[in-house]
Amino acid sequence: MITVYRKDYLAGYQIDESELDKFMSAGYTTNYDEAESGSRIIGGANYSGKSDATNSAGDYTEGIERAKALFKFMPEGVQKEFANQWVKFGDTNLAKAAVRNTQAWKNEFEYLERPDGSLIMNELEAMATKATYRETLAEVGIADTSDFEGQFNKLITGEVSASEFQQRIDMTYNAVKNNIPQVEQMFKEQYNISSDAPTIFAALINPEINDKLLKGDLESISIGAEAKAAGFSRTFARFDSLRKAGLTQEKARQVYQQGGSYQSMATQTGRTSDISTLESAAIGNVQAQKDIGLLTAEAASMSSMQAGAAKKDGKVSGLLET
User: Fold this and answer.
1) pLDDT tens across 103-147, in order?
2) Cβ atoms of residues 155 and 168 within 8 Å
3) Is residue 177 part of a domain?
4) Separation of alpha carbons 287 and 152, rounded Å
């Protein structure tokens, strides 16, 4: 067993050696003389300054001033907790460590804690990281980021760096920016909502804004925007049913961009078919997938035959003639 002391508790505790690190981090020491020396300063067992009432009031005021100087970026509730801990410990580092165990701190910064209790980053670094996140969103026109605070916290908990966030936003924006005018048009048609490009993009990347703005329908509208961009006109109900059946915006882009080629093949082979066959195939309809496979094979065969044919005296020759 080991005896540990602290300036405010000179009697000491008998602890197991495995607990030593925990007590040392809370300001304890195995050296009695060191603790006894510290007991004569503010917060120590032998401090002989002013009366307790006067001394506590003075300590709290000093704690608030220290909090404002050191942690001016922190909410007022956290600053007050620091002052309280300063009264108790009279030491900046100990007060900081103690504040992180208070509810006021957890209300603001709990997202910084890993499951083992260690910090992903300190509070100032978290504020700086969020500022960088905001700058990234400002670059794509999103000036009001108040609805992103919860997302920012999750990103930091997931240890997503500012540079990685920048890459994610750039990639997403480049993928959808060309469809934003179509989304704006569908906003107007479906909801009579006049919106702007930054709001639409914010809803695309933030489910909370999506839910607030459209109650979850934005993905259906994004699918519709892909169709409109490729020249296909469908109802919102159709896009919504496709979304519920599993069609994503990425798959929709492939479907509608291939739609023109598919219809050309149908015309070439004399088949009656439309874009709905491609849509059905994309959400797993087996018969539609077979129909597309057959059509593709017939079109390929006809193209091969036509490639080997030649016109001669106004008549077709080559593969089409024996």
Assistant:
1) 999 999 999 999 888 899 988 899 899 999 999 888 878 887 888
2) no
3) yes
4) 45
CA–CA separation, 27 vs 89, rounded Å? 9
Q: How far is CA 156 from CA 120, 164, 224, in A?
A: 8, 11, 33
Residue 311, sorted as left (phi over 0), alpha (psi -120 to 50) or beta, turns out to be beta
Domain interval for residue 69 = 51-112
Answer yes or no: are the C-beta atoms of 221 and 239 closer than 8 Å. Answer: yes
| β-pair partners for 91 | none
Q: Is residue 321 part of a domain?
A: no
- CA 43 to CA 29: how far, in whole Å? 16
Residue 94's pLDDT is what? 85
Can you tell me the distance from the alpha carbon of 181 to that of 318, in angstroms, rounded to the nearest whole number? 49
Task: Specify burial of residue 290 (Cβ count, 10 A radius: 0-12, 13-18, 19+).
Answer: exposed
Residue 100 CA to residue 213 CA, distance in Å, equals: 36
Give pTM, 2 decimals.
0.48
Domain ends where: 168, 188, 216?
216
> Tens digit of pLDDT for each residue in 20-77?
887 787 788 888 877 777 776 656 666 554 434 334 444 677 777 877 777 777 888 8
Query: Measuring CA to CA, how many Å separate 24 from each of 29, 86, 134, 196?
Result: 6, 18, 39, 56
